[in-house]
From TrEMBL:
Transglycosylase SLT domain: residues covered: 37-232
The protein's name in its UniProt record: Transglycosylase SLT domain-containing protein
Origin: domain of life: Bacteria
Signal peptide region: 1-24
InterPro entries attached to this UniProt entry: Lysozyme-like_dom_sf (IPR023346), MltB-like (IPR043426), SLT_2 (IPR031304)
UniProt KW Transferase keyword: no
Gene Ontology molecular functions: peptidoglycan lytic transglycosylase activity
GO biological process terms held by the UniProt record: peptidoglycan catabolic process
Keywords of the record: Signal
Species this protein is from: Methylobacterium nodulans (strain LMG 21967 / CNCM I-2342 / ORS 2060)
Keyword Acetylation: no
Amino acid sequence: MINCGYGRPLVAAGFAAFVFTAHAAQAAQCGNGPAGFEAWKREFAEEARGRVGATGVSALMGTSYSSATIAADRGQKSFRLSLDQFLAKRGGPAIVSRGRALKQSNAALFASIEQRYGVPPGPLLAIWGMETGFGASRGNVNTLSAVATLAYDCRRSAYFTDQLYAALTLVDRGILSPSTRGAAHGEVGHTQFLPKSILNYGTGGSLDSVPNALNATANFLRAHGWQRGAGYQPGEPNFSAIQGWNSASVYQRAIALIGRRIDGE
């Protein structure tokens, strides 16, 4: 999600980026099917020159329209389930059981993360389990093609235009490659960070590394207001940080509940 790696820009820089992005979104026309993707890609590449390096532009030109991404984007029905239905579908009890075991076997890692960021193991393990089944299902869709397709698609073009610029920047920096693969919306790693989150909250290295992914996730939560020692259930101070992770209410409540059960509360 996230999903969605990962400092925040100055207001003036953020405004300048917004103006540039708004201009780009108007110039490169979005579409609702594969027919216009190649023309859009050429237009976007021209607009990106100067903001993105040659490596990033070249990577963009190598992308293709991802029908799998569009299908996934139109089929997110599980977020409409009740909490009990959602937990059953996602295997909540299994996540709790495995999460407790991983909490013990990785005690030193979680102690280090909590000391640094103030985030206890429970919510981190809940996110890890919910996002990828503790790394078992990280996706097999080309990341750049997924993000480029969603930047082109009219449904959420502005949001994913920002994600695409972030992805191309990460390619320029060698953090992503043209062959990187992940989930259908462009999320990568054990906890499924989108490219912009990698830029803002990543703590160094690939998010296919468990310690890197968990540290980045804790960094994300701290940046979204996590308070050391405070509760994270609905109505408690840290629940708002969990809300920053995913916009779906049922997903937020599932993270909080699974995390509490892992932490033994």
